[in-house]
Description:
The protein is of the alpha/beta class. It has a domain at about 70-320: Type I PLP-dependent aspartate aminotransferase-like (Major domain) (Aspartate Aminotransferase, domain 2, 3-Layer(aba) Sandwich). Helices cover about 40% and strands about 15% of the residues. The chain has 16 helices and 13 strands. Helix 2 runs antiparallel to helix 12 (about 310-320), helix 13 runs parallel beside helix 16 and helix 15 (about 385-395) crosses helix 16 (about 415-434). The protein starts with a helix and ends with a helix. It holds the Pfam family Aminotran_3.
Amino acid sequence: MSDANDAAFARARAALPGGVNSPVRAYGSVGGTPRFLVSARGPYVTDVGGREYVDLVASWGPALLGHAHPEVVAAVQAAAAHGLSFGASTPAETELAELVSARLGDASGIEKLRLVSTGTEATMTAIRLARGATGRDLVVKFAGHYHGHSDGLLAEAGSGVATQGLPGSAGVPAPIAAQTLVLPYNDLDAVRAAFAAHPGRIAAVITEAAGANAGVLAPEPGFNRSLRELARAEGALLILDEVLTGFRVGPAGWWGLEGADEGWAPDLFTFGKVVGGGMPLAALGGSAVLMDHLAPLGPVYQAGTLSGNPLAVAAGLATLRLADADAYARIDAASALVGGWVSEALTAEGVAHVIPRASSLFSIAFREGAVREYADAKAQEAWRYPPFFHALLDAGVSAPPSVFEAWFLTAAHDDAALDRIRAALPTAARAAAA
Ligand code: PLP
């Protein structure tokens, strides 16, 4: 443990609630002192004490190409030289919207996008748009899915809410929480029952394209397509939240791996993380008819001082242009290797586990049997994760500081980085077995 991290954390705790600006960074569920980072490059991050780690967090997804890719940094620097923020439209925003639409293609139904700054805003706006367009109030979400921290979407949410074992958040008025129906994931009967119980009242079903915020919870084959059909039959919209999966699991996100082949598309997509290349940028997109309900054309209000920020747009454009088939192939291969090594190491120590997977995303669940829904993810020996995590950290490998988070590989994880991960795993597995 570096004294420099202890000192940084002590100082931060006096100035910031919990010493952090986003809860999971506090290491609450793994204990110990969070590493305070000062730089990152490729597959590595460096803490305030000068120690380098192979990073498996990737800024929670955005660092698809690895940290500080030189061409992305150059694009941001070039944009910065022309001004940090104008509060007016720029041609590059249109370019990014066109690039996203083109990458998903006509079958996605995306004709227009609205750029925002965070995934939270993207899903919050998508919900408001769905309500505005349908004239209905209720929203269906799935337990263990995380769609950001807007009031109505925190019920039984994944990510930090799951890490802290919270049912939701204080400060959300009961009448607002009551507008969200939380259902078990991968359970179509529950969805049918909700529609039957609230005829004509459900505005939208929102789902992570593939669940990855309660550990990885992959949709069962046909689940997303059936959601599409059920929602349409009931006059509700389907919002596919690709904030985490979009442009990460493939060039056209999870939908590109599934919906494009199966011939279905949601009414609205939400994007974040990779689309901003590590800068604050997110988006929602859909048909022109639907998107034109947004102000200034329509009555559904949404705005943002920094929306479409030129630096963020430059980072997003550069990242998407560099995210070619080769980059995804490298990530897929690295993820297959690391997930396999994790499993081998735990098996060698006799630790019961499964590795839930959704394309290149995976996590560890210390249990036997498949993880289909949030209740399964919670029913595991989660106490095995902190010693596992800390053994990796001691060996210079920074895994996500919660068992309920996915592991993120990048296109920059080369042999040297992968070797370090592999070498660290037997000791970590021994710690998990203890
Ligand atoms: N939706 C999903 C699926 C996410 O994983 C996240 C964040 O992890 C969000 C929405 C919220 O995004 P942000 O943290 O940028 O507000």
